[in-house]
């Protein structure tokens, strides 16, 4: 076991699958106490049971990041249970791709609510705790889609550009004792595309992922790297994509 994160308290949103799950498992193996939040409690409980079986320490909390009181309760419960919050990973996200002309306005709103407002609720809950402690680290999961726009990706890209803007503003405002990292993955094999309802958009993304996608463990490794630096080192952004991705 790599113990470089021994005793760090790390709360992760969207930890029931994909990148959040891989990150929780890796950080727990490295000695961190992980708090996993998502809506699917059955999935979270199974992951926590695995972590505990391997000797790690983890807690599952039901969380819908669209509900600001639930995000606040997620942070409050973490602090009550463990006494502090060292790292908050704003990872929960949805990618509901479709052309603008299809006017899937409900899906636009859901992406804005989860991917942008959810991240802001996380910052609102975590920042006061970290300021009081005089230390902390917020990690926001953006995307390569936060760097470039493609047809069908417009609203999703808008949310991920926003995550990068919010993260940079957070870095400047939070002060030198609080670190800020943007994680920008390319194509990663997870459940993310399974929620797309537009047939052609889903086919296009599945084709893209079939051509080149990396595992969620690669993104977990990047998050581990950012967290495990000495406190004076702030890794501001890591872009990780398959070698074959444009
Ligand atoms: P998954 O679909 O596997 O995971 C998404 C996670 O977000 C799940 O745990 C899900 O849990 C959670 N989630 C969704 N909605 C909510 C909500 N309202 N409240 C709380 N949790 C929620 O996909 P990924 O692991 O790929 O996605 C993680 C992040 O990585 C996202 O922000 C995504 O945009 C980003 N990303 C992914 C890429 C990829 O290619 N996979 C590329 C670039 C960025 P539950 O449903 O149980 O609530």
UniProtKB/TrEMBL annotation:
<comment type="similarity">
    <text>Belongs to the short-chain dehydrogenases/reductases (SDR) family.</text>
</comment>
<dbReference type="Pfam" id="PF00106">
    <property type="entry name" value="adh_short"/>
</dbReference>
<dbReference type="InterPro" id="IPR057326">
    <property type="entry name" value="KR_dom"/>
</dbReference>
<feature type="domain" description="Ketoreductase">
    <location>
        <begin position="8"/>
        <end position="191"/>
    </location>
</feature>
<dbReference type="InterPro" id="IPR020904">
    <property type="entry name" value="Sc_DH/Rdtase_CS"/>
</dbReference>
<dbReference type="InterPro" id="IPR036291">
    <property type="entry name" value="NAD(P)-bd_dom_sf"/>
</dbReference>
<dbReference type="InterPro" id="IPR002347">
    <property type="entry name" value="SDR_fam"/>
</dbReference>
<protein>
    <submittedName>
        <fullName>SDR family oxidoreductase</fullName>
    </submittedName>
</protein>
<keyword id="KW-0560">Oxidoreductase</keyword>
